[in-house]
Amino acid sequence: MKRAFIPPSDRILPGVLLMLTFCAIAPLIDVAAKMAAQSVTVTQVTLFRMIVQAALMLPVVLLLRQSLTLTRRQTGLLALRALALIGSTWFFVAAVAVMPIADALAIVFVEPFILLALGFLLFGEQVGPRRIAASVVGFGGALLVIQPNFAVFGTVALYPLATAACFAAYMLLTRRISREVAPEAMQLHTAVLGTLLFLPLVGLGHVASIVPLSIANTTGQVWLQLFSVGLAATVSHMAITYALRFAPSATLAPLHYLEIVAAVGLGWFFFADWPNPLSWAGITVITASGLYIIARERALARRAPA
Question: Does the residue 186 lie in any domain?
Answer without folding.
Answer: yes
